[in-house]
Amino acid sequence: MVKGVGLTDPSPSPPGSVLVRKYGGSSLAGIDRIQAVAKDIRRARDQGHQVVVVVSAMGKTTDDLAELARRTNPSPPRRELDMLLSVGERITMSLLSMALAAEGCPAISFTGSQCGIITDNSHNDARILEVKGDRVREALADGFTVVVAGFQGVSREREITTLGRGGSDTTAVALAAALQAVRCEILKDVDGVMSADPRLVPDAHRHENLSWDEMRQIASSGCGVVHIRAVEYAAVHQVPLTVRSSFHDGPGTTIGTTAVVDSPGQFFDAHDPAQPPAPCRREVRYRPLVMNVDRNLTRIRLTTDDDQLGRRWRDLLLGRIDPAGMVTEWLDSGEGFRWEVLARRSTLDGLREALEAVADPDNGTMIWQDDLACISLTGGRPDSWLEVQRHVSDLLRDFECPVWRMRADGSALRILVTGDLPPNLPKQLHAALLPA
Ligand code: ASP
Ligand code: MG
User: Fold this and answer.
1) Which of 8, 56, 123, 312 could be cross-linked to 25 through a Cys-Cys bond (beta carbons 3.0 to 4.6 Å apart)?
2) What is the pLDDT of residues 307-352, one digit of tens each?
3) Is the shortest distance between the CB of 59 and ligand 1 below 6 Å?
4) Which ligand does the CA of 93 lie closest to?
């Protein structure tokens, strides 16, 4: 598998059909990559597709822009942050159009606003309300390949908005739905939806097909392969997705294209009727789809019986916390406020000081705990979480992992570990719980 070598179309579709492809930032990290992507797109066009390409910002551009903003003002006005962050994707879209022109493939780039991606007015975390797409349809009809800046739209008040970190996937799915594309392809620096990160677990396997519901469970656990909103949008609008590598022409993972049959063994023990049923212990029925490892997490727990303090904390959190940085959250409040979150440390800059500034030591407590690691096991519905807990606790004891807490929240099991993770733990757990 050679870097930058052209892709063949893994599942051919009728000539003239619209194909939406989305390329992530690491697939577009430099000019050489942009040129390689232009070649791939030209090839898809030569196969007879009308191609719409949705692009992310190059490499770490969005992080760099956010950092510039933070250095200028620790709490930048959300509207201005959108004006700044939306620029990242505009750089890529224009460069890719230029690279396509150099390939002899007439192309035109549009911002989200120019495509008529209409959102609500929630700056930095807007939701798509409607996709008009007229200019895209006209440009396709005129023979252009269309390049669209992902992650952004325009509100009815004509303000530029962004869709939250990772939002380009949603742009692509929404355009695919509006244009009735044959499918939406999400091209990444991974081979598809994997059972675990292959850098941590060399035995990780690729899922060939997943239902929208399975993918929704995976995405909602914080596993970053496809943004959760994009998956939800695809499920509602029945957009078939393919997740595959932009670096080679492997088949990737298709989502939602096959009849929704949950893989055998996940919810029941399927067996060949010609064979006697294998003895099956209940606890080993649990087969999660994906294991995800997050390091450098912080746990924040806020507790108060004072409604006013609870409200002040909540308003501050709503203004400051980036939903994309949260791994999981618990809320328990009636009178007073009990809230706990596990979030990526990198997204919490300045928050502790801000929470302390409004705190009242007599009326509330804040626990702030850094340096947690979390292993999430997602997908697969066990008969009983207690049973799973017994089984997984035994495994963890065998692997000498000092668990701090284990938590189940519907479709995911989270194992929280303080300090460093034992280096072999991801491999061992994967072999025990997610065999191919
Ligand atoms: N560039 C944005 C981000 O990094 C959007 C995206 O990549 O989907 O979050
Ligand atoms: Mg990005």
Assistant:
1) 56
2) 889 999 999 998 888 877 888 889 988 888 999 999 999 889 889 9
3) no
4) 1
Three-state DSSP at 391 gives helix
Tell me the best of 53, 62, 84, 322 to mutate to test the pocket of ligand 1, counting ligand atoms within 8 Å of each CB and taking the most: 62
Three-state helix/strand/coil letters over 81-147: HHHHHHHHHHHHHHHHHHHHHHCCCCEEEECHHHHCEEECCCCCCCCEEEECCHHHHHHHHCCCEEE
Nearest atom within ligand 1 for CA of residue 89? 1
Nearest CA to ligand 1 atom 5: 166
Q: Which atom of ligand 1 has the smallest separation from the CA of 25?
A: 7
Measured between alpha carbons, how far is 235 from 252 in angstroms, rounded to an integer? 19
The verdict on the CB of residue 151 being under 6 Å from ligand 1 is yes
Task: Give how far Cα 326 sits from Cα of 81, 172, 223, 348, Å.
Answer: 20, 23, 11, 10
- What digits encode the pLDDT tens for the residues 163-206? 999 999 999 999 999 999 999 999 998 999 999 999 999 999 99
Q: For residue 5, is it within any domain?
A: no
Whether residue 244 contacts residue 191, with contact meaning beta carbons closer than 8 Å, is answered with yes
pLDDT at 270 over 60: no
Q: 421 and 404 in contact (C-beta within 8 Å)? A: no
- The reported pTM is 0.84
- The answer on 303 and 234 residing in a single domain is no
Q: Which domain holds residue 336?
A: 290-433
Report yes or no on 75 lying in a domain.
Answer: yes
Q: How many residues does this entry show for the chain? A: 436
Instruction: Return all residues near 432 (Cβ < 8 A) that are at least 6 apart.
Output: 395
State in Å: Cα 61 to ligand 2 middle: 7
Distance 63 CA to ligand 1 centre (A): 9
Judged by DSSP in three states, 43 sits in helix
Closest atom of ligand 1 relative to the 57 alpha carbon: 1
- CA of 168, closest atom in ligand 1: 8
Enumerate the β-bridge partners of residue 293: 375
Which CATH number characterizes residue 198's domain? Answer: 3.40.1160.10
Is residue 168 within 6 Å of ligand 1 at its C-beta?
yes
358 Cα: distance to centroid of ligand 1 (angstroms): 32
